Amino acid sequence: MTTPFRREPENGLIIISIEIDDKYELKMVLDTGATNTTIDSNALYLLGYDLKDNIGIVEIETANGIIETEVFEIDSFSSLGRTKNRFQIQVYDFLAHGIFSDYNGLLGLDFFEGTKFCIDTKLNTINII
Asked: Between 93 and which of 41, 59, 61, 105 could a Cys-Cys bridge form, CB atoms 3.0 to 4.6 Å apart?
């Protein structure tokens, strides 16, 4: 399946729409350097999730060092024509850590697990096989 994406002209970020639980749409940055998908805790809270319902805490290594994130299981997580059920995401409070963004998180490589995909920056499309 081939899906077009939008690029930010000023920084080249690849912006991807995702859908949570078949009803909430968020904008995320595709980050091929991120092992796991991470969503801002403020966005998750505004979608009605109770932030006390995490299923664990993990440490991850970022460009700025090691941080702790909470892990949540999302019933349905869709993007680029694919749906992952019971998809585990990492949740981090962007605002509390001085991260100000127009986007709700990072779509990481875990979403593409078990697929072959090609990012075509000439046509601004992603092809998932």
From this structure: 41
